[in-house]
Amino acid sequence: MRKFLLTIYVLLAFAFLYLPILILVIFSFNKDKISSSWSGFTLDWYYRLLQNADLIDSFKASFTIAFSSALISTVLGTFTAYALYKFNFKGKKIFQTLLNFPIITPDIVIGIGLLAFYGLISFTIGYYSVLIAHITFNIAYTSLIISTRFNYLNENLENAAIDLGAKPFQAFRFVIIPAIMPGIVAALLIAFTLSWDDFIIAFFTSGVGTTTLPVRVYSMIKMGVNPQINAVSTITLAVSLVLVLIALRFQKASFFLSSK
């Protein structure tokens, strides 16, 4: 009886979490504009997305911001994780705490804080304000993910390379980087996903002329939910799911290599 009740509980929990998403995906193929009834299968709403200039512009903005912020934050996160792994310095624990602070801070606090900061320094909000904001919170995630790879790294590898004549930078480039590469790729994909899906911080830090895809969807949904919104949400879900699965695969590869 205990196992049966536990199974029912798990099934109800998964249904509560994922059934609304499944319904959203199904109704993105609905002929009827009203999402409350099914009238037949169609791909028309996906074709209309290709003709919506505003949505295409928002898609481009989200993609470029996500790619740029993921790339920059991964580079910075790699050097940060390496510094924490390699060196002991005064205030290291405090630095690690401050580095992880964006992870536990509510997004709305980060968004309002950055908006106030931009106003204080008279920084024009737009594309670059969103990009800087995403880099700011992504560094915490990339450094944390890459640090886990360093925890399983054999420190003798770098020392052996230096003993064999390699300079410190050469040892870092040709020994350390390949060893932690699965973690770097996983961090890059996770950072891209977080930036791609972000709404709250982008809502507060974006300005006229720069509207990310989640913010655009929010403005569209004020007029009511229609299959076109379901279609763009389905595409966003698919992109996020693929990136997360790839990132998880690289993380598994990272742990496998570390155990070899």
- Give the overall shape: globular
Quick one: how many beta strands? Answer: 0
How many H/I helices? 11
| Percent range of helical residues | over 70%
The percent range for strand residues is: under 5%
Termini, distance in Å? 43 Å
Derived structural class = mainly alpha
Radius of gyration from the CA trace? 22 Å
Low-confidence stretches: 255-260
Specify the CATH architecture of the largest domain.
Answer: Orthogonal Bundle
Helices and strands, in N-to-C order?
HHHHHHHHHHH
Mean pLDDT comes to: 84
Write down the CATH class of the largest domain: Mainly Alpha
For this structure, what is the CATH homologous superfamily of the largest domain? MetI-like
Number of domains: 2
Summarize the biggest pleated sheet: none
CATH fold-level topology of the largest domain: MetI-like fold
Question: Can you walk through the features of this model?
Answer:
The chain has helices spanning 2-27, 44-50, 53-86, 92-104, 107-120, 127-150, 156-163, 168-197, 200-205, 213-221, 227-259. The two termini are 43 Å apart. The protein has eleven helices and no strands. The protein is globular, with a radius of gyration of 22 Å. It folds into two domains: 1-42; 43-259, Orthogonal Bundle (MetI-like fold), CATH 1.10.3720.10. By secondary structure, the chain is an all-alpha fold.
